[in-house]
Amino acid sequence: MAAPTGVTTAPARSPAPAVIAEADLRDLGVRAFQALGLPPQDAADVVDVLVLADLFGLSTHGLSRIESYGERLQVGGINAQAHIQVTRPAPALRMVDGDNGVGPLVGMHALRAAMQAASECGVGIAFARQSNHFGPISPYGLIAAEAGYASIIGSNATTTIAPWGGTDARVGNSPIGFAVPNPGGQHFLLDMAMSVVARAKIRNALKAGQAIPDTWATDAQGQATTDPKAALDGFLLPIGGHKGYGLALMVDLFAGLLSNAAYLTHVKSWVDAPDEPQNLGHFFLLIDTRRLGSTQWLAERMNDFAAILHDSPPADAQRPVIQPGEIELAKLARQRQHGIDIAPDVLALLRRHAGQPHG
Q: Pfam families under this entry (predicted)?
């Protein structure tokens, strides 16, 4: 399919990223979110998640999110002084009321609540409500894995996908993630949304003046498109067709319906109504792997699991078989040593919020 008029397929030149040490980026991020009204510890929780996203190379879900989070904090759509409450309806169950706080802050409270429940019962689950976009799932999965917990984590989202066979957006691009720890080795980390790509990638293509593959989204009439503007006005395509549609519904049932948060079309769009609470929901299901066997037992089995995959002869000699999470963990190790790549406009916005000069 040819590119639409006014959209070029030639790669756009972007300014070279700045490279900043992790400690300096964390400090800058914390000061920026404090300037937006968050208490110091709350700002640190938010930055923990977003910096891990940048370390993984997930720049669309890292500190670049200060643009959308910051705008909503400034217009009162997100509560900067959220009083998050955790209740315990059963020994292994936690309910988290996020008080319309910044999503990663609510996420970190829910993760800690689920970890505490799992440490007591072997298995723990936390359901969060009254939240907002909480970043990518893999940072939470890594934090849990480093502490010895296997996890299944999900969130619902603004509706951007049509029901299978439908012609309007009634389903969220709800992400789900899985993580299994490998003590002293490479953790298994899988983080995926229900669409072929995230809307952030389409927005980036629009900013760069680039076409998109026609497998990413449809226009408002449900027709495949390479025009990012038409795609943003239309619907994302789910992974695996009707199977991805069903999985998206399952995530929303757990994250939205069971958590007593909004679900499906009850979720407000942060783009269309930035000054109104979204009432997003999340769930964190954790298993204390130490109840299953020793760390040596788990490490041996996880290493054997990865080796079985790695030993498969690759179809392309330049692309060996990997297990999910290896690329992100390699980027994390490299950027922790050499510094984190940050887009100049993101760094400028962080400095502006933090009250720093742009030099």
A: Ldh_2 (PF02615)
- The pLDDT tens digits of the residues spanning 279-337 come to 999 999 999 999 999 999 999 999 999 999 999 999 999 999 999 999 999 999 999 99
- The tens digit of pLDDT for each residue in 238-291 reads 888 889 999 999 999 999 999 999 999 999 998 889 999 999 999 999 999 999
State which CATH number among 3.40.50.10800, 3.40.190.10, 3.30.60.50, 3.50.50.60 fits the domain covering 196-237.
3.30.60.50
State how beta strands 235-236 and 123-131 pair. Answer: unpaired
Question: Which pLDDT score is estimated for 9?
Answer: 45
Residue 42 has pLDDT above 60, yes or no: yes
DSSP label at residue 197: S
The CB density around residue 233, as the number of other CB atoms within 10 Å, is 13
In 200-270, beta strands by DSSP E: 217-218, 235-236
**pTM for the whole thing?**
0.90
Helix (H, G, I), strand (E, B) or coil at 230: helix
Q: Across the chain, where does the E strand assignment appear?
A: 18-20, 85-90, 93-97, 123-131, 149-155, 159-161, 171-172, 176-180, 188-192, 217-218, 235-236, 280-288, 340-342
Closest CA to 302 of 184, 194, 190, 182: 182
Higher pLDDT, 327 or 166: 327
Compute the distance between CA of residue 61 and CA of residue 137 in angstroms, rounded to an integer. Answer: 10
Q: What is the DSSP letter of 340?
A: E
How many whole angstroms separate alpha carbon 150 and alpha carbon 188? 9
Q: Check: CB of residue 144 under 8 Å from CB of residue 179.
A: yes
